[in-house]
Amino acid sequence: MAEGDSGEKTEAPTAKRLRESAEKGDVLQSKELGSALVMIVGAGWLALGGPLLVQALSELLRGSLSFGRDAIDTFQPGQAVEARLAGLALPLGLLFLATIAAAVGAPALLGSFGFRWGAIAFKADRINPLAGLGRIFGTQGLVELVKAIAKIAVMGAIGWWLLKSRLPMITTMGRNDIVSNMADVGHTFVFAVIVMAMGLVLIAGVDVPVQIFRRLSRLRMTKQEVKEEYKQTEGSPELKGAVRRRQMETARRSARAQMADASVVLTNPTHFAVALRYRPGQDAAPVVVARGRGATADAIRALAEEFDVPMLRYPQLARAIYFTTRAGQVIREDLYVAVATVLAFVFNIDRAMAEGRSQPEIDVPGEARFDENGRPEA
After folding, report:
1. What angle (nearest 5°) sits at the alpha carbon of residue 72, between those of residues 69 and 75?
2. Does the keyword Membrane apply (predicted)?
């Protein structure tokens, strides 16, 4: 068996694999991060909006325990309850909106925000008892158990520390008035919530990397799967070869008539090809009869061999003509000298070859120099 065909999932998931899994509902999630964000928002709301809630509750209690004769004569319990609860609408509404924002913010931070139909699609393994037992007693169940124990340990330690540090204040509460005691209790509660939120943040800081590692491990691919995906995305070599052959045949049919009159073909040597025609006494200047890159360049070279047209390798000059002149047009004036030098060699190529002379050196003007993407060269 060839190396890499053992079926072991040793390759990191591709972008396509990650995207498709997300569309099916398999996204990065962390319940601990969501809990931590909700706790932080709740703690912030208690610190900033707590006095507003206490004031609203005081008004509710005061209004509920005091009434006049008009309240007895025109007894309307519905209006009374509505009036008492109206004061609580603002602080509780702010808390509700803040917690909703925190719950939405957790998946947004993980890049998993959005609705996916695949997440609610029917999956048989969800109702399979064996699969459920595997989740409970398998690696996933073990990880969840460790997380639960860690949360209990962290929260328990924080609770014990808070109780121990506030014990002197609690034992002396009987000596103070009720207003002072309520203020102390409120401050202690807010402080406890903030500290516990920090504890959940610590747990989330460990859980998020674990969830990232577990998801990437779950989506790992075999070498064969990577190859198959590449074939589906980029096309198999056989298919790409067939497409290139069809493109070349099409280009050959369209360029055949023009290539019969070509005097020379300049190449890059493989990516570009430019066919020039110059008939002394008829053409005022060399004319581009065919130009192309890729499959078209292959077709031009094949036709040059068929019609016995000389082919010379001049990368800079071939690109200069390709990017500055269309088929049927004469070349630019600043390329006359370079092309004339080439044509002079071609028209006397038999004597040059007999004398052992190689193709002449030419100079392409700086403003006509281009790279393979058509960008001017510095």
Report:
1. 135
2. yes
What pLDDT score was predicted for residue 364? 92
Strand segments, DSSP code E, in the chain are: 264-267, 272-277, 287-293, 311-313
> What's the pLDDT tens digit per position in 234-258?
555 665 666 566 766 765 666 677 7
Please compute, for residue 309, the number of CA atoms within 13 A of its CA located in the half-sphere on the CB side: 27
Calculate what percentage of the chain has a pLDDT beyond 90: 15
Binned at pLDDT 50, 70 and 90, residue 4 comes out as very low
Strands of 239-315, DSSP E: 264-267, 272-277, 287-293, 311-313
The CATH 3.40.1690.10 domain(s) of the chain lie at 238-368
Q: Given the structure tokens 């124990």, which residue do they identify?
A: 149
- Confidence (pTM): 0.44
* Cis previous bond, 315, omega within 30: no
Q: What residues contact 23, with CB distance under 8 A and at least 6 apart?
A: 116, 118
**How many Å apart are CA 282 and CA 261, to the nearest integer?**
13
Residue 211 neighbours by CB distance under 10 Å = 19
Measured CA to CA in angstroms, residue 284 lies from 279, 291, 337, 342 at distances of 9, 20, 14, 16
Report d(CA 319, CA 176) in Å as an integer.
92
Mean pLDDT on 339-362: 87
Burial (CB count within 10 angstroms: exposed 0-12, middle 13-18, buried 19+), residue 37: buried
Sign of the torsion formed by the C-alpha atoms of 80, 82, 85 and 87: negative
Quick one: fold of 238-368? name from scop (3.40.1690)
* Phi, psi values for residue 11, rounded to 5°: -100, 140
